[in-house]
């Protein structure tokens, strides 16, 4: 994989490198990316050796990050001996447009072909398995997930509001008549309003889910940022599942997704560990601060079903969760793959108790999952 040609725009090439490094699992924040660009400018961004040293010093926080950075760096600059010369802003304003000056049919046709190819690549990416994407593809996927606009489900509220039709609002109608000295006035109507129904996301971050965890948490961040009706507070709750239950709702309320994921990584102690879904769900349904969250909510469990504990215990807890929730959805990254069979212990225990069993391996699957949530 080689870096794209940006006609001398060194900063764009280096920013592309930061996106690829972040997609590989290194927690690169906005501040780190900015510091990297400044460091590369100071040491001389025209040389790849200087870029490598600047990246190691600013983007990496530990030995594991350095290993990942080196791998991405080698792939990103494969086949390149040097970077283009850095162009000043005055020079950028004087650059000739890279598009051809000829406005004839050939230019229009070439531009249309380029747009068609770009659109086709994006459409292919929407159906690709997240685990099979290259760092460059994951960086593009991250941007596409950020452009999703989830809609939260709604429920009927107990309080009634004024409306142009519906049941007669006797009190408002009588008050209007009194204002008119008892003369007949316009009949007022009312209806039950709507409020956002709570959505609870339980995301498996065990070792078997590691290739999908970053994309799924980005999807959870998009859901947590979705607008809500009726001033509903706490409409979205997000937990990670592994060997323990961890609430990451506050971290995902951070508007910037990169900062939010860094906060999640700092809060989750069992990242890429084992899986004890039955025990963790029991904690969720019995702990004082979480046991009420599933009542009347849309609960989404995202897991591949690899359970190290007792499948019978998981079935019991899922049965309780199904009775409490309004709608129980299980999303499995392997569900959409050809030849998949639900033979895992967790999936066998879950299927009798879930309302929807959907895929969760690609951007298209994420979009379908959001539609299921919106209409639950």
Give me a quick take on this structure.
It comes from Janibacter indicus. The protein is an alpha/beta fold.
Mean pLDDT: 82
Low-pLDDT segments, ≥5 res: 1-8, 84-108, 114-119
In order across it, which strands form the biggest sheet? 6-5-4-7-8-9
Please report which band the strand proportion falls in: under 5%, 5-15%, 15-25%, 25-35%, 35-45% or over 45%: 5-15%
Assembly of the depicted chains: single chain
Taking the alpha carbons of the first and last residues, their distance comes to 42 Å
What is the H level of CATH, i.e. the homologous superfamily of the largest domain? Answer: von Willebrand factor, type A domain
Structure in words:
With 376 residues, the protein is α/β, with parallel strands linked by helices. The protein has helices at residues 10-23, 30-43, 48-59, 63-76, 89-94, 105-127, 135-146, 170-179, 210-224, 249-252, 257-267, 277-286, 311-324, 345-350, 363-374; strands at 154-163, 167-168, 189-196, 199-204, 236-241, 245-247, 298-302, 327-332, 356-359. A 6-stranded mixed β-sheet has the order 6-5-4-7-8-9. Strands 1-3-2 form a 3-stranded antiparallel β-sheet. It starts with 9 loop residues before the first helix and ends with a helix. This is VWFA domain-containing protein. Residues 196-374 form the VWFA domain.
Task: Indicate the topology.
Elements: H1 10-23, H2 30-43, H3 48-59, H4 63-76, H5 89-94, H6 105-127, H7 135-146, E1 154-163, E2 167-168, H8 170-179, E3 189-196, E4 199-204, H9 210-224, E5 236-241, E6 245-247, H10 249-252, H11 257-267, H12 277-286, E7 298-302, H13 311-324, E8 327-332, H14 345-350, E9 356-359, H15 363-374
Parallel strand pairs: 4-5, 4-7, 7-8, 8-9
Antiparallel strand pairs: 1-3, 2-3, 5-6
InterPro entries: UCP010256, Uncharacterised_CoxE, VWF_A, vWFA_dom_sf
Domain VWFA: 196-374
Protein name: VWFA domain-containing protein
């Amino acid at each position: 994989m080689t870096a794209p040609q940006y006609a001398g725009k060194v900063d764009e090439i280096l920013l592309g490198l930061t996106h690829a490094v972040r997609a590989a699992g290194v927690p690169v924040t906005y501040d780190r990316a900015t510091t990297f660009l400044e460091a590369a400018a100071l040491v001389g961004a025209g040389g790849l050796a200087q870029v490598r040293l600047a990246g190691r010093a600013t983007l990496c926080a530990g030995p594991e990050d350095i290993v990942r950075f080196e791998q991405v760096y080698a792939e990103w600059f494969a086949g390149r001996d040097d970077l283009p010369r850095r162009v000043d802003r005055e020079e950028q304003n004087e650059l000739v447009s890279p598009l051809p000056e000829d406005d004839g049919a050939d230019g229009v046709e070439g531009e249309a072909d380029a747009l068609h190819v770009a659109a086709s690549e994006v459409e292919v990416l929407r159906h690709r398995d997240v685990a099979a994407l290259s760092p460059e593809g994951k960086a593009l996927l991250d941007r596409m997930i950020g452009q999703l606009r989830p809609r939260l489900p709604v429920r009927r509220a107990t309080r009634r509001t004024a409306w142009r039709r519906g049941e007669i609002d006797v009190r408002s109608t009588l008050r209007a008549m009194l204002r008119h000295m008892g003369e007949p006035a316009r009949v007022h109507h009312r209806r039950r309003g709507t409020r956002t129904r709570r959505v609870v996301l339980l995301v498996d971050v065990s070792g078997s889910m590691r290739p999908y965890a970053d994309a799924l948490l980005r999807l959870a961040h998009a859901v947590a940022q979705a607008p809500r009706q009726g001033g509903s507070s706490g409409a979205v709750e997000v937990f990670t599942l592994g060997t323990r239950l961890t609430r990451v709702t506050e971290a995902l309320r951070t508007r910037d997704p990169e900062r939010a994921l860094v906060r999640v990584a700092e809060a989750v102690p069992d990242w890429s560990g084992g899986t004890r879904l039955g025990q963790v769900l029991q904690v969720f349904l019995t702990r004082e601060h979480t046991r009420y969250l599933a009542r009347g909510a849309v609960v989404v469990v995202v897991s591949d079903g690899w359970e190290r504990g007792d499948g019978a215990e998981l079935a019991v807890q899922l049965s309780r969760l199904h009775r409490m929730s309004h709608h129980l959805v299980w999303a499995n990254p392997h569900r959409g793959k050809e030849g998949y069979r639900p033979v895992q212990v967790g999936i066998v225990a879950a299927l009798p108790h879930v309302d929807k069993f959907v895929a969760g391996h690609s951007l298209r699957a994420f979009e379908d999952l959001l539609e299921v949530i919106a209409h639950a």
